[in-house]
Amino acid sequence: xxxxxxxxxxxxxxxxxxxxxxxxxxxxxxxxxxxxxxxxxxxxxxxxxxxxxxxxxxxxxxxxxxxxxxxxxxxxxxxxxxxxxxxxxxxxxxxxxxxxxxxxxxxxxxxxxxxxxxxxxxxxxxxxxxxxxxxxxxxxxxxxxxxxxxxxxxxxxxxxxxxxxxxxxxxxxxxxxxxxxxxxxxxxxxxxxxxxxxxxxxxxxxxxxxxxxxxxxxxxxxxxxxxxxxxxxxxxxxxxxxxxxxxxxxxxxxxxxxxxxxxxxxxxxxxxxxxxxxxxxxxxxxxxxxxxxxxxxxxxxxxxxxxxxxxxxxxxxxxxxxxxxxxxxxxxxxxxxxxxxxxxxxxxxxxxxxxxxxxxxxxxxxxxxxxxxxxxxxxxxxxxxxxxxxxxxxxxxxxxxxxxxxxxxxxxxxxxxxxxxxxxxxxxxxxxxxxxxxxxxxxxxxxxxxxxxxxxxxxx
Length: 460
Ligand SMILES: [Zn+2]
Known about the structure:
Strand order of the largest sheet: 5-4-8-2-1-11-18-15
Mean pLDDT: 95
Distance between the termini: 59 Å
Low-confidence stretches: 13-21
Number of helices: 9
Largest sheet: 8 strands, mixed
Number of domains: 2
Shape: globular
Radius of gyration: 23 Å
Helix content: 10-25%
CATH topology of the largest domain: Immunoglobulin-like
Bound molecules: zinc ion
């Protein structure tokens, strides 16, 4: 073997090693429908989280209501990423033994004699300091930030990484809670700023409808023992009526003000709420004027907004954005384009706020229609990226929409397939945005009948 052949053989082997062994056991547990997952179906999550902002830690519980859908296996897999600690697990109220295996908790019991046809309940109590985001929202986790008054501003983003970075769940896109979720957030009523030496009121925003805010009568310690709070704490109760992706469930804590509005849409009166930092209220009222015409445009092309029961919300976030269902994270700092520049290179992309237009389109594609696996997330991003051009078509006409679409194709890298590897929680190429959109553009051209194309998009 010549040196040259040997060199290329080694390179080939290394490439193969890279592609063959790039996934570990944790990836397989996250990405596959294994024995601890496949026999039960999530019906509802009842999540409660208490925040210690000073220590950057949480104490919480999630009650998972589920039904049995196939032959019972005596093991339950609950995803809860390290360094979070599971303290206690009960099934139908009975304490269970469990052990940790990378980012999973295995609950082992005698489940075989569980009654079929009725609902059951797994409750996990947990605590810890969730991972902090390195580069949110792409490399997610908790973001601890401050507003202009140096008042705490906190949020979480976890697409791909998984919701188990902050709460125990079946962390898989194919099993959404059919009957939605309740989210209770316990936070201090106010926080003082070292910068201004003033107290600021805090709000805790989440998905769905705010049912009530009540003073917390107890606080938990890490052993889940309750005591009376020394200072004022409140519990914010949010209710999500619709099925929801795990990664879409979220929270935002900060010195927010609410701007409430309504819109008469295809399914009736839609509640629209903006939660923005107190100092940005006037700016937001002006900047968010695009929301109603955008929603009307999307309803025309895509069908009724999918979550009337849960309302539509934009929530100012300490990171760029995320499609959190009925509580979209907005972090584009009231700029046009994508962080102020035109990612379509067509001069059309700077005529609107990309984050509002893109993340809102996800309510139809991503949140309403969800890919079962991360590997198929081009369904979220490709259709959503194409939908941006439908907004342009509504606002500026077909010529600009085409210019915008073709401009975005310049971002296509052709580096690897847009479909990732199945069963290992793998995401495909970032081409899923613009090449996915090009695919939908091509389908529209091939159909060559806008009415049929529109009916196809509305058919869900
Ligand atoms: Zn997106």
